[in-house]
Design brief:
The chain is mostly beta strands. Helices cover 14% and strands 37% of the residues. The chain contains five helices and 32 strands. The strands form six sheets. Strands 1, 2, 11, 13, 14, 17 and 18 form a seven-stranded mixed β-sheet that branches. Strands 23-24-25-31-28-27 form a six-stranded antiparallel beta barrel. The chain has a five-stranded antiparallel β-sheet with strand order 19-20-16-15-32, covered by helices on one side. Strand 5 and strand 6 form a beta hairpin. It is globular, with a radius of gyration of 22 Å. The N terminus is likely disordered.
């Protein structure tokens, strides 16, 4: 590993956040195809297909295998009925091998939901609740106001829909000496706006700092040698070319330094397929981390997906493996992240990490934590404590599902946004850029929400 020097830059305005470490239009000649390519994508791009799981990745567990069918069902419910006034939320229940679905009293559950559950062989448990999403939004606004006025050392509150029958309002920060957690909880819970809601208010005060808003900048000495655009027979995260695979590594000039980010899945928009990245990867022009090929610029899509559409084209492939891998998986479809389901990340700086279990989804105030815009945040945690889920430079990368017994394909799900930054330096290795923050959790936004805001559909493999 190289020893790198970094600047930690606080974000202002539309600067990057979480892990801000992006690139659209292509430049330079296309590299030659290998003499005997292992595989060729529909657009004629050579790639190395996965034939097995990389040894460093956690194998798919029995729990993860069970979750795939009910998880797919719950993702279908959220995509189709997520904006319904009756829908509150859902989760996978491993103990009873069922799907728990919260639906507001007084609203009929569409008959297609139990019918689809029967069709897929899913055990459905319907929870009738008194509150609506609007009630919870009101409670969140109350929490935000209380924290701003009385406990500014805490980050703004957010909602945790871990279970539709047990909604939790949370705050995170370090309590100042002489301050009382009991007083804070009492001030919130006695408010009449919370009356009748099954809401618990909790405070995380574990000595950790507020979630970081930072951008990792690297200087020229920290970039790998820029490869000859005609020299690479197979694409890598650093030397990919158009149409770009998800999980590539990008750089953008910032004064005398470089800001680095990753890219995610492709979208068909008005007949053109674009690669995409995170909202906070907002620099004006991006290139491959180790090449002169351009991802171009981007534009923000106003949605809870917190994404940006890039100029460059996107391929129906995602890098799946280490930071130096040439192996990819083909993207067959997309699904919403769901609580209890397992996923992988693919980012340019630290590669692929799997067996990450979504344990909460929050409607929060992203701007207050340094993100340019608020977004619906899904939090996935590594099932191996202390293992990296994502790191600085992985922002904008891919969040996706493996498929049991299938080493060639994957299902798109989200965009990497950030994490709790609870580890640093050597704990984040192997990484292309050293001395960055990382964590054993990852914050992601829903890719389909970004696509809906952009008016696009997934670039997928096959018909």
């Amino acid at each position: 590993m190289r020893t790198h020097r970094h600047q930690m830059v606080a974000l202002l305005g539309a600067a990057a956040v979480g892990w801000a470490l992006s690139s659209g239009a292509t430049a330079g000649a296309e590299p030659p195809n290998p003499a005997d390519p292992v595989a060729v994508s529909p657009e004629g791009k050579p790639y190395t297909p996965s034939t097995s799981e990389p040894e460093y990745l956690t194998p798919i567990s029995d729990e993860e295998i069970w979750a795939q069918v009910p998880g797919r069902f719950l993702a279908w419910v959220e995509e189709k009925y997520g904006q319904s006034p009756g829908f509150v939320g859902g989760r996978l229940d491993y103990e009873t091998k069922s799907v728990r679905l919260g639906w507001t009293q007084g609203h009929d559950v569409p008959t297609s939901i139990p019918a689809e559950a029967d069709r897929q062989g899913v055990t459905l448990k319907l929870l009738r609740v008194r509150y609506t999403p609007a009630d919870i939004a009101k409670a969140t606004a109350l929490l935000r106001t209380t924290l701003e006025q009385n406990f500014p050392e805490f980050s703004l509150g957010f909602i945790d829909y871990t279970d539709p029958s047990d909604v939790v309002l949370r705050a995170r920060g370090v309590m100042s000496p002489g301050r009382s957690l009991a007083s804070l909880i009492s001030n919130v819970e006695k408010d009449p706006s919370l009356a009748g809601l099954p809401v618990r208010f909790t405070v995380i005060s574990d000595g950790s700092k507020k979630p970081r808003s930072y951008e990792v900048l690297v200087d020229d000495s920290e970039l790998p040698p820029i490869a000859d655009d005609n020299a690479s027979a197979l694409p890598t995260r650093n030397t990919d070319w158009s149409p770009f695979n998800a999980g590539g590594f990008m750089r953008a000039s910032v004064g005398n330094n470089w800001s680095v980010c990753s890219n995610t899945f492709g979208l068909w928009i008005a007949g053109v397929r674009h690669t995409n990245t995170a909202d906070h990867c907002s620099r004006s022009w991006y290139y491959g981390f180790g090449s002169s090929r351009s991802y171009g610029s981007s534009y923000y899509v106003n949605s809870t997906g917190a994404g940006r559409v890039m100029q460059a084209e996107g391929a129906p492939l995602v890098f799946h493996g280490s930071i130096t891998t040439t192996e990819v998986r083909r993207i067959l479809s997309w699904e919403s992240p769901v609580i209890g389901q397992y996923y992988c990340t693919s980012g340019g700086n630290t590669g692929t990490h799997c067996s990450l279990k979504v344990n909460s989804v929050t409607d929060d105030f992203g701007v207050a934590e340094g993100f340019p815009h608020a977004f619906r945040r899904y939090v996935a945690v590594s099932t191996t404590p202390g293992s990296v889920a994502a790191a600085g430079g992985d922002s904008g990368g891919a969040f996706y599902q493996r498929i049991t017994g299938n080493f060639q394909d994957a299902i798109a799900s989200g965009i990497i946004q950030g994490g709790s930054a609870n580890m640093y330096g050597s704990a984040c290795e192997p990484a292309q850029v050293d001395n960055v923050y990382c964590s054993d959790d990852v914050w992601v936004s829903r890719f389909s929400s970004h696509a809906s805001g952009a008016g696009g559909t997934l670039v997928k493999y096959g018909p």
